[in-house]
Amino acid sequence: MIRKKSGYKLFSRVLTVLFTLLCLVWVMPIVEVAINSFKSNAAINTDAFALPNAESFMGLENYVKGLTFGNYPFLKSAGFSLLITVVSVFLILLFTSMSAWYIARVNSKFSRIFYYLCLFSMIVPFQMVMFTLTFTADQLKLNTPYTIPIIYLGFGAGLAIFMFVGFVKGLPLEIEEAAAIDGCGPVRTFFLVVLPMLKPTLISVGILETMWVWNDYLLSYLVLDRTQYMTIPIHVQYLKGSYGSVDLGATMAVIMLSIIPIIIVYMFCQKYIIKGVAAGAVKG
């Protein structure tokens, strides 16, 4: 028994060291971006891994330059990113939760086919549909920040429905039947009874979709008219001066400004992600 306990402790310590090293590997690129955002452009080109010294330290100059660098204002790009993220996540949470409730409660051939099609959309490579998507978006005028959330709804529905269906199947049906007896129709039953019980999965899906939409580059790059609209990832690509020169210090500063909001959101909400994923995976 003592040998088993000592062996378990040793195994736990090995796992702790292993995952600590793995965590450092994942965090290191962010640390390097943060360090280089305070260094001069020449110092970054000379040694990107060196710490700032008296000669290379730029203070907040790179951040000020990053906000005003180029012909397209950074705050405008940040505004478009925020608009697209908020609207897209709202649409995904609203429509996929309603669809998942229908799929879980209506046992029909149509609901099963619809559910499997949503799951199938998760495994289809984006490269297979991106050219058709670009043409369709132009034809339907979905190439603006105000309409592109519809496209994000389509691409984000698969994961969201998968998680919501698993959670809804674990909810007691008697509560909904009691609401129906009290005179609630389907709409009132969903919004007043079912939706509040979906809170753990709503939060976890919302966080995952927020990180995806906020950091997405390819979809917005293909669909949006870049002469009028830029999100933050696109803005970073076009941070070039004359003759195509790139100010790496300002670029690193802009990258940090785009990373910080999503890191803060994730740090405060990571526990809800674990709870929501576990609830959606185990139930049903």
How would you sum up this structure in a few lines?
The protein is built from 13 helices and no strands.
Report on the structure:
- It is a single chain.
- The protein is mainly α and 284 residues long.
- The chain has 2 domains: 2-62, no CATH class; 72-282, Orthogonal Bundle (MetI-like fold).
- It has helices at 2-36, 41-46, 61-68, 74-105, 109-123, 130-139, 149-168, 173-181, 186-197, 199-215, 218-223, 232-237, 248-282.
- It contains 13 helices and no strands.
- Helix 3 (61-68) packs across helix 13, helix 7 (149-168) runs antiparallel to helix 10 (199-215) and helix 10 (199-215) packs antiparallel against helix 13.
Secondary-structure map with pairings?
Layout: H1 2-36, H2 41-46, H3 61-68, H4 74-105, H5 109-123, H6 130-139, H7 149-168, H8 173-181, H9 186-197, H10 199-215, H11 218-223, H12 232-237, H13 248-282
Helix pairs in contact: 1-13, 3-13, 4-5, 4-7, 4-10, 5-7, 7-10, 7-13, 8-9, 10-13
